[in-house]
Amino acid sequence: MATERLKEIARKVLSRDDVTCLIGYRRGSYGFRISPCFLTSPDEAEQLVISPLCLHNLATYLTAENIGPLVKTKDEKKNKIALMVKGCDSKAITNLIAEKGIDRESIIIIGIPCTGVVDIKKLEARFPGAVAPATVEIKDGMWVVAIEGTTVAIPLDELLAEKCKRCKHPTPLVYDELAGDPVAGKEDAYDDVKGLETQAIEERLVKWQEELGKCIRCYACKNVCPLCYCSDCALDRLRPQLIRRSVSVPENLLFHVTRSFHLAGRCIACGECERVCPQGLPLMELNRKLAKDVQEIFGYETGLDPEAKPILSTFTIDDTDEGIL
Length: 325
Ligand code: SF4
Ligand code: SF4
Ligand code: SF4
Known about the structure:
By secondary structure, the chain is an alpha/beta fold. The chain is built from 10 helices and 8 strands. The chain binds iron/sulfur cluster (3 copies).
């Protein structure tokens, strides 16, 4: 039902004279993969899918306008991009609007109320080497995996992405069209960072030196992040060079600490950085700890209000010393 509604919305949106492209999801060419797609005509709407395999946060493409189909058109009348967003993805858009990174009028948001996505690493470990197209859906509180002519039911908890276990906003917070009925959110007690918080500082240092020592500085985490969009990233500069190109524990720590602090109060916990990391680093632990601290120190939860002032770009005379970084 939701998919049919989505296609109907997409056909309507792609028939508009002012829309240059719709960014959505379609089936990938193998296994469990679903890939982003860039549609330009109403006939292509049939390709779109809604599935627990729609993992990518498509908001990342909004700030990558020099790439492929998103190259800014010279036709001022054809200047809008439409895109599909889940609840978590919509918080990136809220922040981008608040930071004036994108213009609200230039996008059409197709909201997808979300019942959760799979942890692709767990799924692929369960079905190693799956090459033929396979599908996953949620039915009666279970994952139903259809693969190579068989159907397997798996309890929800076993494959649910970590972020979805505590998702407060599965229904997009900002949208122009909604493809489905709103989904209720869950509580988030930040249980996932309690381990980090109870560790002594010395233990934390050892742990993170070990973890970040595995980083190969491929920058996939930076490139996939919808909120990492400075056109001139200070960490890439050669003059002055803040971080050497060599991969070593001190340089890696500097990269990750700098990036984490630049994302404090901005990271919307979409988990994309951790999903794409080829080294399997637990980046969300850092992101979530900073999100919790920002919430406790400033009473600020990121991604909720497109009118909000970005918290680390502003101050009040009541700010405590702990809030000065
Ligand atoms: S965090 Fe929420 S909106 Fe995002 S994929 Fe999980 S359930 Fe869906
Ligand atoms: S994606 Fe992983 S390996 Fe690559 S730079 Fe980021 S943390 Fe390092
Ligand atoms: S740092 Fe990671 S979790 Fe946070 S917004 Fe960027 S990609 Fe998403």
